[in-house]
Amino acid sequence: MVNMAAASIQISETPLVLYVLRRADDALILGHRLSEWCGHAPMLEEDMALANMGLDLLGQARELYGYAAKVEANGNDEDKFAYLRDVGQYRNLLLVEQPNGDFARTMVRQFFYAAFADLYWRAMMRSSDATLAAIAAKSEKESAYHLRHSAEWIVRLGDGTEESHARAQTAIDDLWAYTGEMFWLDDRERALVDAGIAIDDASLRAPWLKTITNVVSEATLTLPTNNWMQQGGRSGRHSEHLGHLLSELQSMQRTFPGATW
Amino acid sequence: MYTQALNTSDAEDRHVEDAARAGLFQARIDAEERIEPNDWMPAAYRKTLTRQISQHAHSEIVGMLPEGNWITRAPSLRRKAALLAKVQDECGHGLYLYAAAETLGTSREELVDMMLAGKAKYSSIFNYPTQTWADIGAIGWLVDGAAIMNQIPLCRCSYGPYARAMIRVCKEESFHQRQGFEIMLTLSRGGKEQKSMAQDALDRWWWPVLMMFGPPDKASQHGDTSTKWKIKRFSNDELRQKFVDATVPQAQYLGLTIPDPDMTRDEAGHWVYSPIDWEEFNQVLAGNGPCNRNRLGARRKAHDEGAWVREAAAAYAAKRSHRDVAQAAE
Q: What is the rounded distance in angstroms from the CA atom of residue A25 to the CA atom of residue B102?
């Protein structure tokens, strides 16, 4: 064993490999963020729920990484994808890497993502790619629960106390700019849409906005009027937060190259 | 004065009545019947069980912290998912046990407040730090292994809700124990650094785990009545010995060395361990363990920072029921 930090892997990035890695990274990073709450949530019931959602997302990530490895056929596996890629090789949405902040911020992040993921996985059940369609069938059920759970909290926090209302509104205002990236497609994804493998994420924006608007209004909260959207995660241009997350996530694999755990 | 006088005569009546009830109660216990929440029970039985079940619940919740320390750094996705699921199980055990304690008449909020105020104990083992990944293996293998030794007899505890909770908890704990052993096995079959990580973890956890069974029988405070009430079926030293006898061969299988060079095997086949440093145990119980302040601090922080969330949920529920009433009235 060479005693040096483990080097990052190389990826043969076909459009399908890239596409699957992007979705896997979303699930892993958000799952990791939720797992950070474990033992520190506002009530034991939420410790359970946050861990539950985190486990669902980790499970989705593992299935997607496994599929990416199979399609790539380059000797990579779920752990190499997760533990041996640098910030620039990660392709997750900027939204999911945003820090947990307070409970309102975590729930707004979850709500924005789950409202998208619920529509996304439901649509992906019709993918011509049998593996993705099967992953979608399982993930859709999980996302539906994540959406219900987070939406209920948005309403409780928005229509709860003055303090919870203010915290929920701040979270919405701060995270809003990261929602546009969910509906963005590049040319490589466009080709997969044309082949019936991927669905057109842009088509999900209207139904997503409808869900968000309904819940936010029931919560007596408002959506920002500034609609300038940040993007970059899908092409490896991340916020400052992801590097810290990865240095923690990857510390063992980087310190003990090639070890089996 | 009037009410006090009334209370006195009341108390006298109750006293006579209670003696008869206590006899019946003990007869039920002796006949291995389960005591249920609505059954009459002596105040001391209620108090002992409330203390024991709530300490057990606190231990599950505080126990989330040392292992939670490694969720974000677990070395593979499979290990990460298993660890997160395990810590979630512990939270579930905590909830389940608080519910069992509540059947004795004290609310979860009151029990948690006592823990946060430092007035209620939790297992001393969770006041030790998890320094390396191998500690996650050692906790599963040894700490959960010791917990199972303690808890399997509790499945036959005289108090029904506690006994039933223990049946479910023990199933999950034995799964955790195997998982921990499997982590240790992987490490001890791994590279040099991994093997020494495993040995180091065993070195640090061994003695504190033996202390988990509580003070030696000659010094135990709660032994006698708990035994009479069939809350406790084996003494601390009996359980400790069972654990040592079960664990020594496992360590040998792993190729690890128990940090007790003077350990011998007696004629009956029991492993005889060296004297335990009870001063260390007493210091940890008194709040001077390596992580006491950290653990309690982390639980207090979660509780305090979560207050506004719980208030919001309560405020929303109140508004909601108000609206439902208003709607129903329309």
A: 43
A45 and B CB contact within 8 Å: yes
Reported as a single tens digit per residue, the pLDDT across B100-153 is 999 999 999 999 999 999 999 999 999 999 999 999 999 999 999 999 999 999
SS3 content of chain A, % helix, strand, coil (to 5): 70, 0, 30
Beta bridge partners of B35: B159
Nearest to A50 by CA among B309, B231, B197: B309
B311 touches A: beta carbon within 8 Å = yes
* Mean pLDDT of successive 10-residue stretches along chain B, which has 330 residues: 41 69 95 96 96 97 98 98 98 97 97 96 97 98 96 96 95 95 98 98 98 90 81 94 98 98 96 97 95 97 98 96 81
Which residues, numbered 86 to 115 in chain A, qualify as contacts with chain B under a Cβ-Cβ cut-off of 8 Å?
102-103
Which residues 57-86 of chain A have a CB within 8 Å of chain B?
58-59, 61-62, 65, 78-79, 82-83
- Buried-exposed string A61-88: b where 16+ CB fall within 10 A, e elsewhere: bbbbbbbbbebbeeebbbbbbbbbbebe
Is the pTM value of this prediction over 0.90?
yes
- Provide the residue count of chain B: 330
Question: What's the CA gap between A145 and A56, in Å, rounded?
Answer: 10
